[in-house]
Amino acid sequence: MTDAALTPLDRAGRLVPGLALATVIAVVATVIGRFLPVVGAPVSGVVIGAVLGTVRRPGPVVRPGITTASKTVLQFAVVLLGAQLSLLQVARVGVQSLPVMLGTLVICLLAAWGIGRALGVVGNLRTLIGVGTGICGASAIAAVTPVIGAVSIEVAYAVSTIFLFNVAAVVVFPVVGHALGMSQHAFGLFAGTAVNDTSSVVAAASTYGPGAADFAVVVKLVRTLMIIPVVLGLAWLVGRRAEKTVAAPTGDGSAAGDVALDGSAIEPTVVPPRGKWSPRRVFRLVPWFLIGFVLVAAVNSTGVIPGPVHPAIAAVAAFLITVALSAIGLSTDIAGFRRAGFRPLVLGGSLWIVVSLSSLGLQALTGSI
Hints:
By secondary structure, the protein is mainly α. Helix content is 72%, strand content 0%. It contains 17 helices and no strands.
């Protein structure tokens, strides 16, 4: 029976095995994440999925659900992330912290482009590592992945690379803070702008002190808002690149011959027909899940979502990201890691150093230290 002849119930049924497998892995990863918060559930899910996928490649029975988990579930998770934010939180962190947050982001993205090109790291992978390092780790990678059409091996490599330097930050940053005599507020800003994953931010800042932890979490949440302009910018760039390409176009607007680490075709976002770019045409490039993210954040800003509900929503969003990354791990081609070599790891390390130094430097310039 062809897909067109299937009923909606039949199509949903085909997704169950793969979704169930990814969910089971996510449950195990969540338990591991509770015992090892520095590692976290998303990274555990990627690792477990990759190991299982290496032992036995996903067959046709589970593949549809795995694909749905790695894409659609990931997008719904991004929407729910908006419930962790109030648009008023930007004002609460103060004008003093915004230059540091924005400055480190810009410096990181420019460094990712320059260093990544110098190292010969493929475009999608350097974008994922740059955005993950500059904004908020796995959450930012989740938001950017469907926009640029990144494939599983690129996502897995980016998440794993960022995780490695998150662990390093938890160990090194408190030592640096004490050596520099940083205040609780200053260290909170340092951790909030230079560490990516929320659990790692909390771990590093809590080691330094409760005041640092409280401020670091707020800074980290506000950094998440930077997903919005970055995703919009990437959607526009992908669209312009697809319109200007001289290669023979495929049916979905992507350029023929574009490949990722695993040799599969890159699938960029859908591009409007040729013609003059207008606000309406640019708006059509905005991913639906980004609109949902903004709407949920706006609703949360009004106080409609009760405070006690926030932890539950955050937990659901984190679990959905773990489900998606578990599915990505299942479909990861380990051979792709070998083909990528050590250069993406060097890029991740370089960006970690760049962001750390730029955060300290911008704090010194603005008088925050």
